[in-house]
Every structure is written in structure tokens, then in C-alpha cells.
Description:
The complex is a heterodimer. Chain A is mainly alpha-helical. In chain A, helix 8 (143-171) packs across helix 9. Chain A has 9 helices and no strands. Chain A has one domain (39-198). Chain A is globular. By secondary structure, chain B is an all-alpha fold. Chain B has one domain (7-202). In chain B, 70% of the residues lie in helices and 2% in strands. Chain B contains 10 helices and 2 strands, in the order H-H-H-H-H-H-H-E-E-H-H-H. In chain B, helix 4 runs antiparallel to helix 5, helix 6 (113-123) runs antiparallel to helix 7 (128-158) and helix 7 packs across helix 10 (182-202). The longest helix of chain B has 31 residues, at 128-158. The A-B interface holds A 31-38, 41, 83, 86-87, 90, 94, 120, 123-126, 128-130, 133-134, 137, 177-180, 182-185, 187-188, 190-192, 194-195, 198 and B 26-34, 73-74, 77-78, 81-82, 84-85, 88-89, 103-104, 107-108, 110-113, 116, 178, 181-187, 189-190, 193-194, 197-198, 201, 207-208.
Amino acid sequence: MITPAAPAEPGLLVQSLVILLAAAITDNILLTRFLGMCSFIAISRQMKTSIGLGVAVAATTTATAALNYLVHTYIVLPLKIEFLEYILFIVVIAAFVQFVEMVIERFSPPLYFALGIFLPLITVNCAILGVSLFMIAKEGYGFWQCLVFGLGSGLGWLLAIVLMAGIRNRLKEDKVPENLRGTGITLIICGIIALGFVGFSGMIKF
Amino acid sequence: MGFLDSPGGKALVLNLWRENPVFRQVIGICSTLAVTNLLKNTVLMCGALTFATALSCATISVLRAYTPKQVRMMVQVLIIAAYVIVAGFAMRAWFPEVHKLIGPYVGLIITNCILMGRCEAFAAKNPAWPSFLDGAGAGLGYSLVLIPIAVVREVMGFGTLFGLALPARELWWHQWTIMIMPTGAFFMLALIVWLCNHWVRRQGGTPA
């Protein structure tokens, strides 16, 4: 039997794929880290706005993960200003969200009005800041890995909100106990989906 | 006029129950779910959040006359971030092992909707002392929900309380692994929302 010479380091592509899948599925930012719950619960009533917000969040996490990696590596570490890190991250995120908001307003006014208050709220969506904070806590991530991690986390959030919007759509006609309607049943469904996602956890080994 | 009739006292009590941020307004629940598998982490997190909310509300209230409307949000975020950084450093110094586990969530207090909500809804229009009490009330209202969740999850998931083993647990205790997992957190919060809605409805109010 011929044993292939095992490469010590997996190729960049394989590694990226692993990071992407892990961030999107086994370490789903919403279902296992509970980030971005507020807008998730409020927005997931409708499929269309869910997709819109999900895409906006995915774009923002990808871009801010990359930008914040640069801020972390080239500004915070050389100047030893770790204590200002939260503030710098937030400023980068706020500026970027403002930019996304202008783009959506220009190209899709209906989506802009449907998202309403939740667009500026992406700034304080903990998923965005959370991705940046979890990213710098991971060791050995370079620029590319952070970009992929941001993308994977954002896609995971999009996946979760789309799943939930679909389920809530079906649930409209069902008889849910009066006091569980709205938030209560949404949380229970989240729990059940989270249980499903835990099933993936053995599949990806770092 | 008693303390509870003053504007600050009223705001404090209102936040504790009738307008409780977690189960009445359903905001700020990210960390509610994430830090509640151990009671010690939960208590420290609640302390950090109450500290940050109360002091940033007071500060924002003091500065409200000098803050231009257009950059209001930015100023609020910076003030909140300053207090959160203080809380984060204090926790890293005194409880390094807890900080390792929930560190990112302490940083995430900055984007916790409770803080922004209280600053916008109350502190931007009221004097400093009532704003301080309002913020403290919101923090305590948050703790009021988190601590019971943490007690149930730690007892059922780990068989300990505050890190101490329960008495004679080998005789009667069985591990509910589901309580350690994210699912346990979702179910516990759903249960609390359910019970509170039930109670509110019986009192004749409108549930969340």
C-alpha cells in the first residue's frame, strides 16, 4: 500500500474551507455563541427582510473582520494600545455600517425602508463586534484566515436567520400556547435548531 | 417624599420588573444566554454590566447639554466603551480565570442593547442622579433574570453551585448535559419568558 507523503501543513484552500465551515456551522455565531439575538428575534418574522439583513450582516462581518485584523496588527500591537482596542473596533464598524447603509439606500430603497431602524443597529449588533473579538482571540490567524472566518460567521448568521424565518412562516397558522407566542416559541425553536447544529460538531477537527 | 416616589427611585423599580429589559423588552439577551452556565461567571458579568450601565447613564446625562444631536450616538458609544474597558481590566486583574472564559462577552457589553436603550430612552433627557438609578435598575433587572437561569443550569449541568459540589450528589444527581449546551440556555430563557407572560396576563397586562 502506498502511503502518500502527508503534507505537514494542509493547503491554504483546505484550511480556508475548514475555517469557513467551522465558523458557519459547528461554531455558528448565533446558535452556539448567541450573538446578534436582538435583531434576529425581531426581524426573523419575514423571509424577505431576513435575507436582506442576513446579507448585510455577512458583508459587514467579512469586511470588518479584515479591517479590524489590520487595525489589530498594524496599529494596536505596535503602539501597545490594547486598552483602546474595543473603541477602535467600534469606530471601524460604525464607519463601515454607515457606508453599507448609504449603498443600500441608493440601490434598494424598499429594503432600506423594510430594515428601518435595524440598519443603524447593525453597529450595535453584537455579532459584528463579536466576530472581531473572537477572531483576535484565535491564535495563528493571518489576514486571509480572518477574512474567511468573518465570511463564515456572517454566512452562519444568514443561514440561521433564513432557517428561522422559514419556520416562523409555517408556524403562523399553528396553535401555539398564548403565552409562548412571539419570543417564547422563537427561543424554543432556536434551542432545537442549536441541538441540530451540535450534531455537526464531530465533523470538523482543527 | 420617599425614595420610591422620586423620579430616580421610580425608574429603578420600573426597570426591575414592569419594564425588565430581558423578559419584558427582550433586549440584551446575547450575554444572557452565553454566560449563564456557571453562577460565578454570571454574577461577575451582572456586576460588570450594572457598573457600566449605571455609570455611563450618569455620565451621558451630565454631558447631555454639551453633546451635539448629530454625533450623540458616537459619543454614547465612546462613553460606554470607556466604562466597559475599566470593567474588563478589573475582571482580568481580579478574576483572570473567569476573564479567560467570558472575556469577549465583557467586551460585548458595549454593543449590549440595554445600555444604548437606557442612554437613549432615559439618560439623554434626565438629570444625573435619576439616570444613574435608572441604569442601575436596568442592570439589576438583568441580574434578576440571569441569576435564576444560572442556578438551574449549573445545578443540572454540573452538579455544583458557585463551583462547590452539591451535598451527596452521587446519591441523587444526574447530569443533564443539555443544560451545558446552548440549547439549555434557549430553553431556560423561553421558560422564563413564558412564566412571566403568564403572570403578566393574569394581572391583566399585555405580555411582551
